[in-house]
Amino acid sequence: MTALLEVVDISKRFGGFQVIEAFTFHVAEGEALGIVGPNGAGKTTLLNLVAGDLRPDRGSVHLAGVDISRQSAHARCRRGIGRTAQIPRPFEGLSVFENVLVGSTFGAVGRLRGTTEAVAVEALRTTGMIDKANVLAATLTLLDRKRLELARALATQPSVLLLDEIAGGLTEAEVLELVDTIRGIRATGVSIVWIEHIVHALLRVVDRILAIDYGRKLIEVQRTNTNAAFDLAGELMSAKSVSEAVELSAAHARKQFEAITVQTRELAALAQKVAAETSEPIKESVASAFKKVA
Ligand SMILES: Nc1ncnc2c1ncn2[C@@H]1O[C@H](COP(=O)(O)OP(=O)(O)OP(=O)(O)O)[C@@H](O)[C@H]1O
Ligand SMILES: [Mg+2]
Fold this sequence. Notes:
- By secondary structure, the chain is an alpha/beta fold.
- The chain has 2 domains: about 5-240, Rossmann fold (3-Layer(aba) Sandwich), CATH 3.40.50.300; about 250-294.
- The chain has helices at about 45-50, 75-80, 95-105, 115-125, 140-155, 170-185, 200-205, 225-235, 240-275, 280-294; strands at about 5-15, 15-30, 30-35, 60-65, 65, 80-85, 160-165, 190-195, 210-215, 215-220.
- A hairpin with a 2-residue loop joins β1 (about 5-15) and β2 (about 15-30).
- α3 runs parallel beside α5 and α4 (about 115-125) packs across α5 (about 140-155).
- Adenosine-5'-triphosphate binds near residues 19, 41 and 45.
């Protein structure tokens, strides 16, 4: 996979406070990256630096090989960087459809595939908001406000979608609904960078997780074919204390042990079944082998 978004050695200082320090990461085409870290770690600032709401003091941001570090937020949006805000701020006085139309009309000028209306409708369908197209944004529930954030971003037909704690404040059932929507978006080939405190939601979507604290990258973990190990790593990376991390590890070990015990029992039952259907000498040797294990 080629890197679609490349962030190289960026730093940002607010007054005397170094909020982001020599931060480097990339996202490949079609990849989903998760970012975890405690409150105030610099996550939203990092997203702002990528989206263009802030300019880095040092370092660079590249999209599809083009240096966009000095471009404005709307210029970056038009190049294909879509984002949702941590606190949704739709145009309250406009309908859901009109809000999304703003995205498709101004967010992808010169490269929109389809008419502004068709693209807006498609974004509403993908995010499950089509039935609320004519509802006033001001009257939406939190889940629908989050969906609208997603729809507005999608209407700009982004190649990279940046999500800032989109699952925050939702019920468990709502989080799972949103996860389904994000998985659907990802399946269309959009690359995703998702900042999230709700790790189990993140783990259902991303292939790689990086942890940030004090504006620095602490660690980065890639999903391999052992999903359990990746899930544990993700949970540990977002643990709030060492004791929580130890507790999580212990629970994980217990779960693994139980899984192995179940597998062993199933294997033993299978072996006994095979032994029952085979010749006497083999039956005896299997029986004696199992006596030793039991
Ligand atoms: N415009 C600003 N001026 C000064 N300090 C800022 C500014 N924006 C953010 N900060 C500070 O930078 C630090 C990182 O903030 P940021 O919002 O990036 O954290 P975060 O990781 O997104 O936190 P949270 O999980 O609470 O959303 C915080 O200490 C914050 O107070
Ligand atoms: Mg934040």
